[in-house]
Amino acid sequence: NNYIMTGNIDSLRVLKDTLELVNFHRCSLVQGNFMDLADFPRLKVLCLKNTAVTGNLLDIDEHHFPLLEQLRLPHRVYGGGGHEFYRIAEMTDFIHKLYHLKKRRSPKLLLYWRWHL
Question: Considering the entire predicted model, what is its pTM?
Fold first, then answer.
């Protein structure tokens, strides 16, 4: 927990080939798009809860985050933990894509996530 840490997660690109764990939980001034780290070949854990990071969970494709085992995203990310959906049709499409994502990845990837309708 670091309430005064600032910066953009894109700054981590210099560590692309070595970084295995990113944990900025409760660093509310850290920003950027979580997909900026999608091509990190060794990244296993990405925790960005309670940050200003944005993006879209549905942007994750088969070749993104190749070794990722644990992903925790803030509600500002479309589909992130605690994200609020406003239409049933939107939720249906989201769950369908998420189901296929989880089938290809570790079952723990989105284990503790919840969404609101």
Answer: 0.84
Nearest alpha carbon to residue 38 among 16, 69, 21: 16
3-state secondary structure of 16: coil
Block means of pLDDT (10 residues each) for the chain, 117 residues, are: 87 97 93 97 94 92 86 89 80 81 69 66
- 3-state class of 7 per DSSP? strand
Instruction: Give, as one character, the DSSP assignment of residue 91.
Output: H
Count Cβ atoms within 10 A of the Cβ of residue 99 and give its class: 0-12 exposed, 13-18 middle, 19 or more buried. Answer: exposed
| Residues 6+ positions from 79 with CB-CB distance below 8 Å | 56, 57, 58, 73, 94, 98, 115
Give strand pairing partners of 29: 6
